User: Which sequence fits this backbone?
């Protein structure tokens, strides 16, 4: 499966908000309220955010966010609700890892999010502990 990542633009706003505000995505996210576009796109203080859409044959199937701070990149990911359970999540995160420029990558995952835990584990992330009830997964590259 080939996923092409492209930078999200304002024309993708409705699509990204629909994916992000879907109940399952909210339940698995740090912020569980319904987000506005400004909240979705704004980087946390001290970080630089890159938001990508993943396309398969020109069809948008999910999104990944790369938040850079110093030598660290935090990944977060969402597959379009209609495209879940088809190995797209794993391919999406793999593409995000290939795009990220830091050696150290992290992801915060809710303990009950079995699909995301599987994806992180399969792609070489190690669980480093827990913060605020979320598991911290880390990938260290040579
Ligand atoms: C989590 C999410 C990204 C997974 O994407 P996906 O495309 O459905 O997952 P995949 O099909 O690539 O499956 C990845 C692995 O999880 C397993 N899996 C998929 N859905 C599962 C489920 N509901 N429960 C348990 N395991 C599941 C798959 O069998 C696969 O395991 P394998 O590699 O051993 O075969 C997607 O469900 C999603 O966007 N959820 C809402 C947002 C979210 O949770 N984001 C992540 C926050 S950390």
Assistant:
């Amino acid at each position: 499966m080939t996923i092409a990542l492209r930078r999200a633009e304002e024309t993708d706003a409705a699509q990204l908000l629909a994916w992000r505000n879907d109940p399952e995505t909210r339940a698995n996210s740090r912020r569980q309220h319904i987000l506005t576009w400004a909240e979705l796109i704004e980087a946390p203080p001290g970080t630089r955010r890159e938001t990508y859409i993943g396309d398969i044959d020109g069809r948008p199937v999910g999104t990944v966010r790369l938040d850079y701070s110093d030598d660290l990149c935090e990944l977060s990911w969402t597959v379009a609700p209609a495209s879940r359970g088809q190995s797209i999540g794993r391919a999406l995160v793999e593409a995000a890892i290939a795009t990220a420029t830091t050696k150290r990558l992290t992801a915060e995952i809710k303990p009950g999010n079995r699909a995301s835990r599987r994806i992180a584990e399969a792609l070489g992330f190690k669980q480093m502990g827990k913060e605020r009830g979320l598991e911290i997964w880390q990938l260290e590259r040579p």
